[in-house]
Amino acid sequence: MIDNKKVLFSGMQATGSLTLGNYLGALKNWVALSDEYECFYAVVDLHSITIRQDPAVLRKRARALLTLYIAAGLDPEKNCIYYQSHVSGHAELSWILSCFTYMGELNRMTQFKDKASKHADNINAGLYTYPVLMAADILLYQADVVPVGIDQMQHLELTRNIAQRFNAIYGDVFTIPEVYIGKAGAKIMSLQDPTKKMSKSDENPNASIYLMDDADAIRRKCRRAVTDSVGEFRYCEEQPGLRNLIDIYCACLNKTPDEVVKEFSGSGYGQFKEAVGEAVVSVLDPLQKRVAELEKDKAYIDSVIKNNAEKASYYSMKTLRKVQRKVGFPDRIR
Ligand code: TYM
C-alpha cells in the first residue's frame, strides 16, 4: 500500500516495433486501472539486452516507448513512468531472488524455450534468468496487481511462487501479486496465422499491426487478414481468424462479442474487415498524434525521466533494504 492505495506494476520491452497486441493486451488496461492504483510502469531495458541490441537503436526505442506510455493517457504526475535501468534495485533484488529460484522452474518456462530456439546462437544466462528479473520488478514495489496479456501468465505464476517461498522462510516480506487480464484483447493473434500470437518479432509485416502504422497500412492489413471459408458470422474456436478480428474490434470499441455478432450477422467478412480497420484507425490515429506532439517537448520528457526514476528508487529501496536485512547482509554504518 502507498498512501492507502494498492500498488500496480507492469512493464514493456522496447525491442522491435510495438504491436496492437501490446496496446490492447496491456497498455489500454494500464490506463483504465491507473486511477484506482498507485502505479509503476517501467520500460524494461534490462530485459531487452537478453537479445543482442544496437545500443543507439535501443536508446531511441526506449525513449519512444516511455513517450508512448504518456501519449496513451498515463499521467506521469500520478503514475511512475521510468526506465528499469535507472533503478539499481531491480538488478540487486534479482540476484537475491535467483538464489530462491530452482533451475527446474526456469526450465519449464515456455517463453525461454521459444526464444532460445529463435536465438540458438545466443542462449545466454540472462535469457534463462529473465523471469527472475521480472519477479524482482514486481516484488520490489510490493505490487498487488500486475496487468499483462495471457502470454505472461506463466511468469506471474513463478513470481508468486518465489514470493511465497521467500515469505515462508523470512516472514511476510513480499506482497503476493495478482495477475490482471483484461476482458478483451488479452491475446491478439497474428493476422496471417490466427493460431499464433501477434508478435513484434514476426517476420511477415502483414501479420502484425504496428502502433505506428499509418491508416492505409492498417486498413490494408485488416483487409488481408486470414479468415476461413465457412462464410458464417460466428464467434467460435473453429473460426480463429474471424474470432481474432472480433476480439480486436471489441477491444478497440469496448463492445462484447455478442453485440458484434448481432451487429454483423448476415454481413460478409469483407464488410466486417473494413469496419475493423476503421476501429483500429480510430484508436491508433489519435495516439500517434499525441506521440508526435510529446516528442517535440524534450525538456518535459526529460523531467519525467528524472523525477520518476527518483520516485521509483525511493520505493524500491524500502523493499530492497528489508530483503537485504532478512537474508543476513550486514547493516550499513551511517
Ligand atoms: P512484452 O514487452 O513482450 O509485452 C508487453 C505487454 O504486452 C502484452 N502482449 C500482448 N497482449 C495481447 N496480445 C498479444 N499478441 C500480446 N503481445 C504482447 C504482454 O502480455 C505484456 O503484458 N517480460 C515482459 C515485460 C516485463 C513485465 C515485467 C511485465 C518485464 N517485467 C513485470 C509485467 C511485470 C515482456 O517482455 O512483455
Can you walk through the features of this model?
The chain has 334 residues and is mainly alpha-helical. The chain has two domains: 6-181 and 298-327, HUPs (Rossmann fold, 3-Layer(aba) Sandwich); 215-293, Tyrosyl-Transfer RNA Synthetase (Orthogonal Bundle). It has 13 helices and five strands. It has helices at 20-33, 45-48, 55-71, 89-98, 103-107, 110-118, 125-140, 153-170, 215-223, 240-253, 257-264, 269-296, 298-327, and strands at residues 7-12, 38-43, 79-83, 145-147, 178-180. The protein has a three-stranded parallel beta sheet. Strands 4-5 form a two-stranded parallel ribbon. The chain is globular, with a radius of gyration of 21 Å. The protein starts with 6 loop residues before the first strand and ends in a 7-residue tail after the last helix. Bound molecules: tryptophanyl-5'AMP (TYM).
How do the helices and strands line up, and which of them pair or pack?
Layout: E1 7-12, H1 20-33, E2 38-43, H2 45-48, H3 55-71, E3 79-83, H4 89-98, H5 103-107, H6 110-118, H7 125-140, E4 145-147, H8 153-170, E5 178-180, H9 215-223, H10 240-253, H11 257-264, H12 269-296, H13 298-327
Parallel strand pairs: 1-2, 2-3, 4-5
Helix pairs in contact: 3-12, 4-7, 4-13, 7-8, 9-12, 10-12
The structure holds tryptophanyl-5'AMP (TYM).
Tryptophanyl-5'AMP (TYM) is lined by residues 9-13, 21-22, 25-26, 44, 47, 134, 137-138, 146, 148-149, 151-152, 185-188, 197-198.
